[in-house]
Every structure is written in C-alpha cells, then in structure tokens.
Amino acid sequence: MSASDNKGAVDRFWLDAKPLPSEGSVDKQLESLAESIEALRARDEAAGATLARLDAALSHGTLKGVLAGICGTSSYLRDLMVQKPERLSEILGEDPQQRVEALASKAIGQSEETEAAIMRHLRLIKQDAALTIALADLGGLWSVRQVTNALTLIADATLRGALRFVLNDYHRRGKVTLPHPEDPERECGYVALAMGKHGAGELNYSSDIDLIILYDSTNGCCDDPYEMNRTYVRFTRQLVKIMQERTADGYVFRTDLRLRPDPGSTPPAVSILAALQYYESMGQNWERAALIKARPCAGDIAAGEAFLQEIVPFIWRKYFDYAALADVHSIKRQIHAHKGHGAVAINGHNVKLGRGGIREIEFFVQTQQLIAGGRNPALRGRETIPMLAELVKLTWITDRARDELSAAYEFLRKVEHRIQMQRDEQTHMMPQSDEGVAEIGRMMGYASADAFKRDLRNTLECVQGHYANLFKEEQALGAEGGGNLVFTGEDYDPSTIETLTTMGFQNPKEVINTVRSWHFGRYPAMRSAKARERLTEFTPDLLAALGNTDNPDSSFLSFHAFLKALPSGVQVFSLLRNNPHLFATLIIILGAAPRLARTMGRRPRVIDALLDPAFLGDILERDHLDAQLEKALTEATCFEDTLDGARIFGQEQMFLIGVRVLMGIISASQAGAAYAMLAGVIIRHLLERALRELEERHGKMPGGEVAVIAMGKLGGREMTASSDLDLMLIYDHDKEAKFSDGKKPLAPSQYYARLTQRLITALSAPTAEGDLYEVDFRLRPSGNSGPLATSFSSFCSYHASDAWTWEHMALTRARIVAGDDAFCKKVRAEIVSILSRQRDEDSIRSDIAQMRARIEKEKGTADIWNIKQVPGGLVDVEFVAQGLQLIHAHAHPEILHTNTAQSLRLCVDRGLVGKSEAEILLPAIRLYHDVTQILRVCLSENFDPSKAAGALKDVVVRASEEIDMRSLEEKLREYQGEARACFVRLMGPVEEKADSQ
C-alpha cells in the first residue's frame, strides 16, 4: 500500500520492522522528534495526513521502538527526522524500494537551470535516500545486499544527474556539441568508471565514491583537439564540485579520483587511449585488483564498456599468476601498518582494515580472482559473496569457508553501516568506549553488549583464520626479480650503476659507497650482523621508494642521516621490511615534511614513537594522555626534570599528531582539537607542579583559587603544529588574606605573579631536551602594562567598564583549561555574562571593520597562501564569527562557542546568518584550516608552490580534497573573494577611520 493509496496510513512494509533495544525511556529518546511533530501541527493546518501517519507510527509499538532506538543512537538520522518530519511521514507511507527508485529517477530526470539549484536538488535527494535506507536497514527489513544496492543506485543516479547538468550547461554555452541533447550522456564520449565498492554495487552508508574519468579523444562531444583535454578536465572539476562540496544542505558523495592511471602526473580526466597505453606498459598488480570491480556508471556507458573489454587481457591473465600474490598481500600488510592494527580487538577496532575485517574477505576473494580469473571467466564478477560461491564450484575453497565468510561479510558490513550512520562519517572504527560499543550493539539489535562483543570477536577471528591460511606460504611468494643491486667488493658493478640510474639517482656511485658504509658497522644501528642482514633484505625496496621521490639523491641522504641517528637497527629494519607502508610514511616525512624531518634529526627519541605499531591509530583520549604524562613526570626528582619530561612527552605527541595529519588519517579539525587537548593536558600538569613548588617555598594562599584561560587558537581548539599559547591566569583568595602562610610569605599579587612566571617558564623555557611552546600573556586585562596574573575582581571590573571591543572579541575564544573546578565554573559564568551583555550593533560592526583595516594596513598581503592575513582569509571569517557572537549573544547565548566554525554553525542554525553567507563562510573556514594545518605540519617557513617539492604539494592538495594544485589555488581565490564580500556585508567596509580605537 503506497502513500497515495491510503493517505495518512503507514505502509504495510514498515509494520514488520523489528524494534531496536532501548537504553532508558523510549519517550525520552523520542522527545525531540515529538516536539518537531508538534511544531508542524501548530504551523501547518493542512498537514493532517502527514500528522496522522506520524501519530500512527508513534502509536505502533514496533515502529515506535525502531524510531526511539534510532533517535537514541544516531544524531545524524535523528536530525534528518527532526529537521523535516514531513519527509519521515512520506517515507513511512511508501515501500522503500519504490521510494529509492523514484528518488533515483528524480535525480537523473529533473533538470535544473543553475549550479546552485542542481547542488541543492541532489543533496536533498541524498538526505531523503539516506533516511529511507537507514530506516529499512535498522528496522531489520532489508538485507545487506538490498542496502548496498540502494546506496549504489543513489550514487549512480546523483552522479548522472550532476553530469547531465554539466553536459547540458556546456552544450547551451556552445562549449561542446552533444550528439543527442535530449539524452546528453548518450555517445558524449565522456564516462565515469565506478571503482571499488561503488563499482561492485556494494557501497557503504557514508562511503566515498572512487571514480576513474575517461574520455574518447576520437569520438566525443568536444571537436577541438587543442581544447579537448582542458574541456574534459573542467567537466570533471565541476562534476566533483557538485558532488562533494559542502553547502548548508551538506554534500552528495565525497569523490576520489586517485585510482586513475598515475594520478600524480595525469589530469583528473584521462583519454581512453592514454589509459590503455598506461595499463599495457606500466600497469601494476594492485591496479589489476582494483579494475576487477570497475563499472561504467555515468556518461557514455558504451564507451566505458568498450574500454573495459579492451583491458581484459591486462586484468585477466591466462596463466596462474602466483607472483601477483606477493604484490597484493604487500598492499594488505601496508594497510595494517598504516592503521596500526596488530591483533583482533573490539573497542577501537577497524572493522574494515583491521585484522579479521572486511578488507580481508575482499582480498581473500580478489587474490584468487587474479590468479584464476584468466582461465575461469566465472571468477570475473564484481560482487564479493557471489564470487565466494564460484570459488566453491571450482573447488578452490570449501563450503564451510564460503558460508562462514559470507556470514561474516554481511555481519561486518552491518556493523560498518551502523558506525557510519551515527554521525554520517566515513569511518570504520568501533568506538573506544564501552558505552559507544553498546550503542552499536543496540543498532545491531543486541540488548546485551557482551553478546554483541562476543559475536563480533568470533566473526573477526573466523575471518582472520581463513585469511591467514590463504597466505601461509607468504615468504616463498615474496621474492621479486629486477636489475642488479650489488654492493659487495671494491669495484662498481656496471649493472648496479645502470639500475640506480634508471631508478632516478644522479650520483649512483655515491649511493653505492654509502650503502657499503652501512655494512661496515660504523653506526650504532648497524653493529650487529642480524641488523645488517635485515637491512640487506629490504635495500631494494628502500632504493625503489627513494627513487620515486622528487629528488632521490636528497631523499637518500635524508634517510642516511636518519639511519645514523638510530640507536639500534634490528627491530627497525624488520618493521620496515614487513610493513612497506610504514616505510613509505618515513619516506614521505623525509621528502615532503621538512619540519617533521628536522624533528627526527634533532630528536631521535621520536623515532621510537614512530616505530610503535599503534602510532598511526586513533588520536589518544584525554585520560590516556593524562596517564602517560603523569607516569613520565612521576619519575622527576626536581622541577628541571619535570620540564625535561614534559618536553620529551610533548615533542613526541606533537610529532605523532603531525604524522597523522600528513598521512591523511585525521582531519584538520581533529588535528586542531588534538593539539589543543595535548596542550591542555600539559598545562594542567605543569600548573600543578609549579604551584606545588611555589607552596614549598612560600606556603599556600588562604582561600586561593586559580583558573588558566586559553585564548586564541588554543581556546578555539584550532591549534596547529606551530601555534603559540595565548593564556591568562585569573586568581581569587580570602578577602582577609594579606600574605601566604609559608616561611617566606608573599602578598597575593606577588604570589600569583610568581606562579604565572613559573608556569610560563615551565611551558616555554628551553632545556637540554629542547623547547615546548611559545607563551603569550598579552591578552590579559591592560596587556603588558597590567599585572601578569589578574585577580577575579579586577577581571570583572575591567571587562565591565574598560575593555575594548577587540578584547571582548578575544574573549569569545576563552576556554578554561586548568585550575580549581569550582572557581573555573565561576570564571566561565562571568565570561558568559560579559559576552551576553547587550551591545550597540552598529558600534560593534564599526569597531570590527576598523580593526580589520588596521591589521590589513600593518600585515596586509596579496599572497593567497598567507591564509591568515590575506583579505577574505582566516582573520575575516574569525572576526565575523566573533562579531556575530558579541551582537547576538544577549538574545541567543547558546551561540557562544570558542570554535570559529562551530559558532558560525550555531548562528546559521538560529537564522542569524543568511544561507548565502553560510554557503561561503563554512566551506571557506574548513578549507582554510585544512590547508593551514598541513602546511604548519610540514613547514616552518612560508609556502611557495613554485619552489615546493612535488610530494609536499601532493599532501597539500590531498588535505584540501581538491583535484590538483591549480584547482586549489582557484578555490582559495574564490573563497577569499567571497569571504571578504561576506565580511563587508555583515560587518562593514574595511576602512580605517580617524576616530578609531
């Protein structure tokens, strides 16, 4: 029964849903949804059928249980329901398969006139589909295959809708000539190949879509051979923008083009002829594995099918290719090294890449497809479970292996979907906490967290067992041939010189001499025979990796310096040989991140952390950092030892965060929060020890209380690798207290000034173990002319009558990071009170605009890479966020937030910022932080793309999620221009007036 058949009724399909186990009151979990429904009832008298269906759903015990379970476990799905209860009602009135198919048809068939319109249209379709599919999945009404097929259908349809808009737009403007304007994709000569899970019809809930974009250079819609490549690249950039750029409506699908031939040196769109030549001459085994799942999904489907037919001999070799196994398994080992998984676990486990995860099942199938698919066409399918069945028919695996792996695949895909449904994040990590794991369990239908953990662990161990059996002869399969690499004897082997030259080394004899020197045992790491044997084993891989860098000779010398600094070698070389991606990480650091490379050279201690198998796992929790630092400082026998311990700990953790950023494991916002969390932990511990030392000399201050306020980047949790600490120390004490109670008593102002100075020293003074942070206390009341520590009463009175607008702007980022709990709450309440006072809007806007003008006069630049100071850069967006808080906090105190992006989102949610401004400022601040974060990790100096190494430019582009450096520069210019225009509209023209502050 559809919605049109019976208005106001719930479709029969949904009545068979299975309720999710609930934690707490069902009505409490449904509270926000119920409020949204009541709001709809109040504002729309014509919504009778809609409301009747919602009331019916909430009166049906099973459906109510499903909706309550979703609201209690997934903020993303809850928000989709609460934001638009009419949509939920429509979904419940239809069969989900029919609705998803209708949405797909709408995505493809409904034309829009502008780019903004098509972007909004496709994003709303994605929201609708996401909620529909999740309800059918979580209600136990759809199988995994139905879920993944539906997600793939929507991905295909939205991509086609986006491409059809681009094709029509270019056709209207006379840039291309479509053979069939009424059906723009047909014979257009431009095709998108879906790769990976998208190609196989197995897309996960919050998946990227991996695409290879190809065009036919001999028969397409662009006739000009000189403009052809440029036109199709522009096609692709616009297509990617429509699909993945975040707007106020979210995004459609994140789009990844890195599976194309040689992505580091080819444009986003590659001609079919060039792709064929690449695969015939340089294609690698991992690319064979990737192309198994390739499927034309948008554009000229016939051209895509013809291309795949052409490369059949590359993918499917006619002989049993056992040599490919070593290569494919090498990729698997890289994944483990990259993610830091050494054993099956539950809390924090990666259900895709971890041991026993989804990737092991996929590789179990793909490796055998690569070996035997050339002779057995039945093994050339894209889907995982059907291929397990084919392997049984060919007696490659047992019935038991098929059944166990099929069940495991479906179970793990369900877990993966639920992890992603919680917040619409492309993650595969189980929560770290027991409470989080229990939430996933309830989404899986488990009332008992222990039962869920047991079943998940059994599943992972089952998969791991099958996978280990597949590769039990790994060592015998691992040998690879190649040119000579002979480093023994005194003469130079001509073939070795040729091999090194071919690899890209300009001075092969120097390389030979250096490698020989390693075997002389001159360095600590090379003094044991076992270490030298280990080094010999992976020297070919080492030289190949170095040869792929921009400057192989320079990278080789950097590795040599690294090797000399190592205290021992056996463990290091074994890890590097067995974990190629760990080694690749080291090469990237040496070649693309001079700042991190210098840290390794100066501080060999951080190398120990780099070799920890868990170093590329999730960011550490605060409690874990607290425990680690407490353990390190407990061993200190004096204050100087404490400072040394803090520097060792801080440098190591900052290095690990930097490596995670460099490798793309964490986002800019995660990195900013991680750096800030680390700084907060260090400040708390050093404040405690500074106070303890002060009390030993001067006693305690009666009734003494302190609060350390973080300002700026630390306060906003937007720190980078080079951020200093903007701090303020506030204190209070008994009114009767004139002095501390120690042998050498001090007056309160002296006492807390000395505490502040000790804290500054503890955080910033260089020691034998190096430095930690630059510290700035200039944001305190009266700045450098005021006392170093500020009494609470002075703080209150100053901000009540004497503070400038810029000081209240700075206060919007104030976050208390250390001190006495009760006093910290008191100080926070005062800060909120200060910021929530009603202000003259025109005066605030004028002050902010003039302040921006003064800063621009002093530090102005036209360099788009000076992201902070360039007009329309970070400062503009931050000033807008701070200004909006000062103007509106009296009526909307809930918008007060120390983080720039979050405060803007809160303003958007409450209608204080227009949609047009939101679609500029939010993506801009995200891009600015992404790029700034990676540049601060890699460099100590300014970034100049014309002089930067290719590897560095690659990581900058990857961090930005743009296609290439040119696209990134265009995007920066676009955002900077639009952000400045937003600033002028919201705050006023950037011009300094004679009567300014």
Structure notes:
- This protein is mainly alpha-helical and 997 residues long.
- The longest helix has 31 residues, at 668-698.
- Strands 1, 2, 3, 4 and 5 form a five-stranded mixed beta sheet that branches. Strands 6, 7, 8, 9 and 10 form a five-stranded mixed beta sheet that branches.
- 60% of the residues lie in helices and 5% in strands.
Portion in strands: under 5%
Major pleated sheet: 5 strands, mixed
Backbone CA Rg: 31 Å
- The N- and C-terminal alpha carbons lie at a distance of 69 Å
Provide mean pLDDT, rounded: 88
Poorly predicted tracts of residues? 1-5, 320-342, 473-482
Instruction: Please tally the helical runs, counting DSSP H or I stretches of 4 or more residues.
Output: 44
From the spread of the alpha carbons, the general shape counts as globular
